[in-house]
Amino acid sequence: MKHLFLLIMLFSGIPVSAQRSSNEEAAVKTTINKLFEGMQKADSTLLRPLFTATARLQTVVNKEGDITVHDDAIGTFINSIGKAKAGSLDERLSGMEIKVDAELATAWTPYVFYFQDKKNHCGVNAFTLVKMNGNWKIQTIIDTRRNDNCPDLPKQ
Fold first, then answer.
1. Which of 6, 19, 103, 150 sits between 20 and 30 A of 86, alpha carbons compared?
2. Model's pTM, two decimal places?
3. Which CATH number does the domain housing residue 134 bear?
4. What is the pLDDT along the chain (156 residues), one digit of tens a residue?
């Protein structure tokens, strides 16, 4: 009987943990979606609160087989978005895979980027987020970019 009680107690915590994980994944997704909304609106004020103070934007660059990583401060990225014409930047996702552990989350988002309604490039974003003061903040974005084999994605 004692073992049965322990098993019941052990398994009774699983739904709560799964629910919490699902809620956290949804919150991470909301933060990432706000980033793309801010890009579409060319609204730097929408973007600023999404990032940590030390956030970085990186791009894996492949120039004829020579692989490097280009590194930008998030402030530079945010300022460039604020100077764009509203509606000219449209990053469309074909999926989002999120993993969460405590205050750390990652998201893998394959994308196609459209500039002024024309397909420009595609690749994958890899996000790292940290939960700070109850809010998910983006710490890093590293992406790949290519011009070939980019699928057509519908406007969302």
1. 150
2. 0.85
3. 3.10.450.50
4. 555 544 444 455 555 445 567 899 999 999 999 999 999 999 999 999 999 999 999 999 999 899 999 999 899 999 999 999 999 999 999 999 999 999 999 999 999 999 999 999 999 999 999 999 999 999 999 999 999 999 999 987
**What gap in Å lies between CA 97 and CA 81, rounded to an integer?**
25
- Residue 73: phi and psi, rounded to 5, are -75, 145
Element (H, E) at 13: none
Length of the chain: 156
Residue 97 lies in a domain: yes
Number of domains in the chain: 1
Structural domain harbouring 89:
17-144
**Is residue 86, in this structure, part of any structural domain at all?**
yes
Residue 150 lies in a domain: no
* Distance in angstroms (rounded) separating the CA atoms of residues 71 and 73: 7
